Amino acid sequence: SLQSPSPSDLFQVEFEVFGKVQRVFFRKYTKLKADELSLTGWCVNTPEGTVKGVVCGSMEALRSFKQWASKEGSPQSQIQKAVFS
């Protein structure tokens, strides 16, 4: 039988953030946000000037992370868009 996801289920999402996201401590703040939300994963600067990574955690935490990575980011970053898959 199919069960709906429980709050303890873990999900994994790939992301890429576009805009002014390198040399603005974006990865450092991403780590702080992930720790705050009990998410695990990684992120790297790409040669194209984006930040790309993977996060894993609860659906609720991932929702909060998506909001943060799309709108907030690090204080000096200027986010054009964030893509999640």
Describe the protein in words:
A hairpin with a 5-residue loop joins strand 2 (40-45) and strand 3 (51-57). The chain has 85 residues and is an alpha+beta fold. It has helices at residues 26-36, 59-72, and strands spanning 11-20, 40-45, 51-57, 78-84. The chain has a four-stranded antiparallel sheet with strand order 2-3-1-4, covered by helices on one side. It starts with 10 loop residues before the first strand and ends with a strand. Helix content is 29%, strand content 35%.
Q: How big is the Rg?
A: 13 Å
- Overall mean confidence score, pLDDT: 94
Strand portion: 35-45%
How many alpha or pi helices?
2
Which regions have little confidence, pLDDT < 50, spanning 5+ residues? none
Q: How are the strands of the biggest sheet laid out side by side?
A: 2-3-1-4
